[in-house]
Amino acid sequence: MSDGSHTRRLAELRHADSGSFGGKSSTLGELIAGGIPVPPGFAVSTSAFRAFVDEAGLAGKIAAETARISPGDVESVGAASHAISEAMRFAPVPDAVRDEVAQRYAELGEPPVAVRSSALGEDSQNATFAGQQETYLWVRGADHVCDAVRDCWVSLFSSPAIAYRARLAAGEEPAMGVAVQLMVDAEVSGVLFTCNPVSGDPSMVAVNASWGLGLAVVGGEVTPDDYLVSKVTREVVRGHVHTKEVEYVPDAGGRGAVRVEVPEQRREVPCLAAAELDALMDVAERIERYFGSHQDVEWAIARGGELPASLFVVQSRPVTAMKRPAGTPAAASAMALVMSAFGVGERKG
Amino acid sequence: MAAPSAVGSFPSPYEIETPPGCEGWEDMYPYYGRFDEERREADEQRFWFWNSMHFPVPMPAFDAICIDTAYQALGSWQNRVFAVPPAMGIDWRCINGYIYISGNPVLDPEKIAERAGHFEKRAGYYYENWDELYAKWRTKMDALIVELGELSVPQLGEYEPDEVAFGDQETSYVAVLDAYRTALRLADVMWQHHFEFLLLGYGAYMTFAELCKANLPDIPDQHIAQMVAGLDVLLFRPDTELRRLARLAVDSGVDAAFVEGRSPDEIDAELARSEAGCAWLAELETVKEPWFHMATGDGLYHTYTSWLDDPRIPYASLIGYVRALKAGENIERPSDHIAQERDRLAAEYAALLGDEARAGFEQLLALSRTVFPYVEEHKFLCDYWFLTSWWNKIREFGDLLVAHGFFENRDDIFQLSRLEVYSALDELLLTWATGGQPRGPKYWPPIVTRRKELLARLGEWTPPPAVGAVPEAVLDPALIMLWGVTTQRVHAWAREQEGGSELTGTAASPGVVEGPARVVKTVGEIGDVREGEILVCSITSPAWAPIFSKIRAAVTDIGGVMSHAAIVCREYALPAVVGTGRATSSIKTGQLIRVDGTAGTVTILE
Fold it and tell me: What global pTM score does this model have?
């Protein structure tokens, strides 16, 4: 029976929903609310995960396996992860969840989708680190979407995730949401920061871009083209085109993304032109304004589309690791600063 | 302190050889301007850089006054008046006719602290009363220019005039020597005025730039400059007047006179044939005073004359503007746009800063804008108007010496040092008074000939950007503020000493272009610049404005982001890289080069 309680359209979600849908899905909802172009899709609630655990009777096994580990003991963590994951992989997704996902998927028009885990908790940086951010690309067909949703749930019990939770004071039962989005067949994709995270300059947008799906950039498999663009004048203050040897593209006939070599003649071609950078700057500024803080944004530009409609944001999160600019001494007056330029009050080393 | 080899090295000033045929060049310059053996130990350990910003070509003996007097003035203000804590003044030495300079640091912490006390009081007084002091400065400067104009060089007749016999007038030998001393004194005073505000002006600007960079580490230098730059700057006025005259020529239907390749005289002659043309010429006369006191170069050599002396440059500009107007182009300087952009940048950057940084940003921006009119205007008044008039005054003494057989040409006077000229005048006046036979007419001409030949030969030689020790850090505020010589820059010079096809400098105006290079070493070569070329020069001056509408980019040896080339390129939206140290010596006319004004690099492509 499908009462609609396990899924929601992304566009309906807000931050307040992060407790039941996880950080990623609720942020995507916020982005849509902020008028940011996000591929349409739906979110699977943590209630679906709980229903899955309940119906399959996995709660006892999870509790028993996790009780046995000691956080520092890599082998015990690995054994627990393996035991839980295997049990989960063979457990069926509850019919109610399956039906709802299939219905939502049908509403999307049954396109290839990206299925991403949407972890609970504010600390999504750590969640990334703990390997809880699985993504399955170019997933096609309702059954496969359900399998990918389950695979996301399984990732909650990866070794690093278990070890990470074990180090924390015992909190709530682990749970996970999942986001299912129309898959952008990206010609170019990458990451942008609405500041220069290296220097801390808030007047710059830092863009990394490479051919194909975002995997290559996010996974560090290529040295992407990089640009530092002024928010004030939109000038490219610094830009480097690198040799981009590999890219991920959708597996033509099937499912998933495959890693292929970039043809020689495209490797050193800049993958962004002025128009693309401009569209990215528009989006960067809107996202920063909407959230009121510096954001780390994953984006993709669809193959064969036309800007700005072909530009999509697939993820955004606050920039946490940013260098603070040196700034100026807090108490210094303008005149004291001028004086120090002439060496007044300077300590000679 | 010998430099670690990782940062490269500079040649010792004592290892540099005299180019063949240039023996005896030292005699053109004062004894204290040489790298002599007595000071070898100290001088080899110092960092000296070629001041190609002010002295791009070998120094004529007379023109060395612009070294001595300028550094007397700079040192007086920096060291003895304001007592800038870590730095005294600038020493100079000459190698093969090229001028190398080095700062004198203050190293004793107690001395630095003592100086800081004086500096705070005295500089503080200037900053607090800037507008009032600057208004007084303008009055002094205007009076000085008037005084120079009124200075007359007496002629030596067969008999003294009646006023000497029947009145109180001085005898001519007194009057001539007086006039010469007065001419020298006026130059001393001009340089005194020139440096009165200079360091403080640049210092305020640099502090603003540093605050911007501390809070906005990636902000392009040109944005900082754009936020500060004046809108209605004296320096741009001469060019603005030319645009107005070009429009007048088109509107009054006399534009047909402005044909490429015609001389100013030919154009004037054609204009004089019609009533409308005469009206245009009358309008030109009103513009000439004072705007044609623009120099054709940066003013520190006697060869850099004014537009009045050499109207080819403003006329070339007029021809270009007339042609552009007839082609339907807009030749207006986009000053509204510049003003809007300046305020927009300031507002947007301020909004990006935290509250505390914003307060400092706004105060320093206001201070920088207060001091900036001086920084831009002193160039027109001191370097252009005064100096071009002053060289002409010295030429009048040249005429006097020509009249009595000492020289063949009036400009030969510039081959003598100012003290040698004094000596020649002394002899002239002595023999004129006594009726004796002067030795000068035999003595000076061969010296003049030899020195001209030396200057020509030395001009073929390429000086290294720096000699002596590579400093660990450049701390002298004057070197940083006035010459853009920073630690990074010096280390880049040292690394590039071996050569290479890429030059680095300051990214002064954004954009990337490729094109054929045109190396311009002297002002006389400006006329060779062709449409679409990339200008490569030591430094440009506002008088070169006309060629910026022809070129695709500019590269200079010396200069920072506030240098003239940088400012004008931003106005014309041309890429510019300044302060490369060796562009004119590494690049040859006709070579294909790429200028990346965003990254600050110049690449020789072929």
Answer: 0.79
